[in-house]
Specification:
Distance between the termini: 22 Å
Number of helices: 2
Oligomer: single chain
Largest sheet: 8 strands, antiparallel
Order of helices and strands: HHEEEEEEEE
Shape: globular
């Protein structure tokens, strides 16, 4: 079993059995595992980041109408299926945050987007592993409050890696 497969198995176990799971008790009873894209090594990237000169404060609306505060940290650019893509990495006291919506949203991926916590590397670089992209908890249960992906992080390209849209029947 690969490291990613182990991680996914542990996550499925947590979702299906832990009282801290974002799933309702009814959902946990019927839960058979999350849906994932196959591991895609070409979407595990070490990227140079272009820091913003001014760390602009951003108020991200949440799925429940609240606001969460982030700061624009840097921009990353990367190729996806022969096209250039660009995303903003945000920062908060909890660390780095990379919400994004791809062109598969609403079909294969969660319509409001997926999340990543990119790992900062030396020299204005980040490890961005889209295989670790996950749905926010509000994708499973609307009692959760999740930041909505800013417009600047809506991609016109598909990101065929990470977690797929939640299917309660799966």
């Amino acid at each position: 079993m690969t490291e990613l497969e182990e991680f996914r198995a542990e996550k499925d176990d947590f979702f299906g059995h832990d009282v801290q799971s974002p799933l309702t008790p009814q959902q946990r009873r019927d839960f058979r595992g999350l849906n994932y894209f196959p591991e895609n090594p070409s979407l595990r990237l070490e990227l140079k980041a272009e820091p913003f000169l001014q760390k602009e404060r951003i108020e991200m609306q949440t799925s429940t109408g609240d606001v969460q505060i982030y700061f624009r940290h840097s921009r990353i650019q990367f190729p996806v299926e022969g096209q250039e893509a660009e995303l903003t990495i945000y920062e908060s006291p909890n660390g780095f945050f990379l919400p994004f919506v791809d062109s598969l949203a609403g079909k294969e991926t969660y319509p409001a987007g997926r999340y990543l916590e990119p790992e900062e590397l030396p020299g204005n670089r980040f490890l961005v592993d889209f295989n670790m992209a996950y749905n926010p908890y509000c994708a499973y249960n609307d009692h959760w409050s999740c930041p909505l992906t800013p417009f600047e992080n809506r991609l016109k390209v598909p990101i065929r890696a990470g977690e797929k849209i939640f299917d309660a029947e799966h």
